[in-house]
Design brief:
D-Maltodextrin-Binding Protein, domain 2; ten-stranded mixed beta sheet
């Protein structure tokens, strides 16, 4: 009976996605495990608004922020796999938290049906303008000569924290991690030089970069950011292999009908290619993606493996910097 219901749901969604902009079929409940206005929320809505424009399929957004994204992500895993509930999750709940939370209530590698990787937001190595540093090579020299330079992040286990820990390991230097609860406080201390270095996501610091209060030194990606075309990659600046990013993916409960997955993936790929969507992602410092479900599964697996090694080497826990 359950399989029959899922098949019927798959057919309903398949035909609704083909009905065009006049579609009035049942909307899809879409869980976002972070607050309204967060990067996850904004990126998801930009993309799915375009899917709605293209297909007429409606989405009802349900923000469930708590526990580093674990609560909302668990709600996706526990939902009925009938194609009417899915959501966006990120590198934290889908990779990092499997390592940091011993009692995680879901398995990122087994409890979801991947649909598509939709965006990657690389970390950017930045320094306060109070430091007389203009290049990554100068920063590296400064860190080697001055142990325990402070760097700020939005909390233990965040992409910013792990990007800093990874940088320490690659360079063989020792820095002091300062976790902040409020991003605005972090940025204030970065500008003032109290925590003079950070491994930030561009939306958090773009205003201060434009104002000249923070200097972007390198992008932790294999290619330059369109929003920072004159800022080199870490490899170009001399630190090879340094890649770190927050990323965003759409997943559904395990067992969601294949027809639903394939159809939604196709429409996400089309929406991701829209020039307006790409331009808006670029403004956020995000690189648009459009993976297949199989590519997303491999990406999740590889990210868990990569960060397991880095976290264990750094002795990082939720309580320890």
């Amino acid at each position: 009976m359950k399989n029959a219901r899922n098949l019927l749901a798959a057919l309903l969604i398949f035909f609704s996605f083909n009905a065009g902009a006049q579609n009035t079929a049942k909307p899809i409940n879409f869980i976002i495990p972070f607050s309204a206005g967060s990067a996850s929320d904004v990126i998801t809505r930009i993309l799915l608004e375009q899917v709605t424009t293209n297909t007429g399929q409606r989405f009802v957004f349900d923000n469930k922020p708590a526990a580093g994204g674990n609560i909302g992500t668990a709600a996706i895993a526990r939902a009925e796999p009938d194609g009417f509930t899915m959501g966006t999750s990120t590198s934290g709940p889908l990779a990092i938290n499997k390592i940091l939370y011993p009692d995680l209530s879901y398995d990122p590698e087994k409890d979801f049906q991947p649909i598509a990787l939709i965006a990657i937001l690389p970390n950017v190595v930045v320094a306060s303008s109070t430091l007389n540093i203009n290049t990554l090579a100068e920063l590296n020299d400064y860190l080697r000569k001055n142990p325990d330079v402070a760097y700020g992040s939005v909390g233990n286990g965040s992409s910013q924290h792990l990007a800093g820990a990874y940088y320490e390991q690659l360079l063989g230097v020792k820095m002091t991690h300062i976790p902040y609860r409020v991003t605005a406080n972090l940025v204030t201390d970065l500008v003032a030089g109290r925590a003079p270095v950070s491994f930030q996501l561009l939306p958090n610091v773009v205003g201060q970069i434009k104002a000249g209060n923070i200097k972007p030194l390198a992008v932790a990606s294999n290619k330059r950011l369109a929003a920072l075309p004159n800022v080199p990659t870490a490899a170009e600046a001399g630190v090879k292999g340094y890649e770190s990013a927050a990323w965003f993916a759409i997943v559904a409960p395990k067992g969601t009908p294949k027809a639903v997955v394939e159809r939604l993936n196709k429409d996400i790929v089309k929406a991701s290619a829209d020039p307006n969507v790409r331009a808006r992602f670029t403004e956020l410092g995000a690189e648009p993606q459009a993976s297949s479900p199989e590519e997303l599964q491999r990406y999740i697996n590889s990210e868990i493996k990569k960060w397991t090694d880095i976290i264990k080497k750094g002795g990082i826990t939720l309580e320890k910097s």
